[in-house]
Task: inverse folding
């Protein structure tokens, strides 16, 4: 196990230089870290450079760490060489279980004994990916969202044979570099956010397949609709507000029967008293004790600012054309 | 049918003064319209006033129409009196089918022959709600999102016996007052956005029921994760970008097999060549012919601005405490 604080990590190995791997590299560089990269693609250097250069203005806008250098990255001919000397390893290979298994085994063998190897996998449990590793204790899922240099969320979860210190160290490292971390206590395919996102996506695919809506109607129904609320209040707090002064309790007691309506192809769970109470208590936690009027005011301020932000971002693009 | 342009509509009847009905009233007032309201609750006047007063700063910030007056609203003792003389009727009664049926029949009878009666229903098809109306030709669904004074989306769809002119007139009126309108060509429980939102919500409820995640983890997984992208790019365009230079086609060909993964409790449709092609073509429409680099730049600008907007909105609230 590792006694050294995560603040001493100076170098990260990025294994895989696709959209996610290169996005991670850009983020690590912006936090002032050095990056050692590997990707088998012949044009990996070009792809990395292109993603990092495209991301750098955004990262500069958000604020660079002292000494951040977009060129502090070196591409190595093998994964083992990239991992040598790195204080943390982020694996972002294609989503192929056999590939992940052999690559993670190789990375675990090459990384130092106190170095955590985190996988960007979108949904595989680490227990399934770690089967080939001689020592799987340092293998952890560290699932980011695209683009990793802008979206704060990272979901962290270990496999059955992952050491508790390794999961904790990955979470501590991500928090140290400014990420919003959710540490899950159990493996779940798709983790949390991707399960929710995948539910939307599958309903959308069903609707297109059935001719019920076009992709552009689906997109606009979100961007001009509930999508405007989700950056400030997640689905649970959103429905807490939808209940008016009665909050989540009123919403569930009032709209609960609509869970039986065919509003999506996903069957709802039984709204048991226990589930109702968990949702009500959870909404109170999300609300942080703030009264409804304050939550409504916060949402309103945020939705207005979000609408303006998106309009400005779109107008800036139109101006460039 | 109506020959008069929607710009001549000066007065709207708001039937029901809950969160949605009062929110609609605030929006109509901000657009310079007069509102005639009815709600059977004894404290309806207070509730209306509270919602309108709470919404007015936000509406002022977004820009009021000339002559907009937060007090240009009158509460009537009966629905028929509220509807008399109104140029458009917005029904926002509780989500109870029997109630909707009798109320919509009453509203259709009371409204002038060229006046459209729109229901804010969250999911009932108009065909099911219009069964008691002597003349259902002017009954239309005009489904808003909470809060109706800030979220632009309105889904418009008629029932089997709705006249085409009435659906078109509702859509024209909403567009005239600044709404983002999706006109659906068929009835579908939950319409479009609520089906997508409901899929997330049901998956979230399942996760809480199974102990897989807490409501606050679910909320943060969205606010700090994919929720930051959805105000600018909907689910389809988001996955177009996730495909990198290859876009939606690459995404589907590469991640298509993950549709078979247990990432949500919702079964995916078969990814047939036809569905694949529809999604690829739809993403191109959403992308509006813009190259991937421009879409990525737009998303990055927007996500940064959205993050800042939400942070500022939260800080403003904290400052008030």
Result:
């Amino acid at each position: 196990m590792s006694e050294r604080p995560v603040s001493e990590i100076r170098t990260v190995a990025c294994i895989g230089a696709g959209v996610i791997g290169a996005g991670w590299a850009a983020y690590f560089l912006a936090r002032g870290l050095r990056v050692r990269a590997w990707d088998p693609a012949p044009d990996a250097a070009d792809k990395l450079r292109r993603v990092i250069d495209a991301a750098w203005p955004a990262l500069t806008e958000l604020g660079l760490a002292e000494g951040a250098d977009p060129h502090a990255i070196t591409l190595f001919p093998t994964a083992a060489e990239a991992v040598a000397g790195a204080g943390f390893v982020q694996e972002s290979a294609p989503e192929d279980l056999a590939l992940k298994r052999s690559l993670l085994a190789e990375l675990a063998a090459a990384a130092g004994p106190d170095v955590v190897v985190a996988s960007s996998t979108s949904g595989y449990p680490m227990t399934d990916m770690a089967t080939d590793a001689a020592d799987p204790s340092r293998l952890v899922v560290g699932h980011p969202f695209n683009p990793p240099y802008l979206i704060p969320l990272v979901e962290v979860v270990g496999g059955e044979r992952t050491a508790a210190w390794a999961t904790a160290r990955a979470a501590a490292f991500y928090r140290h570099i400014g990420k919003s971390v959710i540490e899950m206590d159990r493996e779940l395919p798709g983790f949390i956010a991707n399960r929710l996102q995948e539910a939307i996506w599958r309903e959308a695919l069903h609707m297109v397949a059935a001719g019920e809506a076009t992709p552009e109607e689906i997109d606009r129904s979100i961007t001009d609709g509930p999508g405007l609320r989700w950056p400030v209040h997640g689905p649970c707090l959103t429905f807490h507000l939808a209940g008016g002064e009665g909050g989540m309790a009123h919403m569930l007691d009032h709209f609960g029967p609509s869970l039986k309506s065919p509003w999506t192809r996903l069957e709802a769970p039984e709204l048991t008293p226990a589930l109702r109470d968990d949702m009500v208590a959870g909404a109170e936690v999300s609300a942080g004790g703030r009264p409804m009027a304050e939550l409504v005011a916060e949402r309103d301020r945020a939705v207005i600012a979000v609408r303006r932000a998106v309009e400005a971002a779109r107008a800036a693009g139109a101006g460039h054309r």
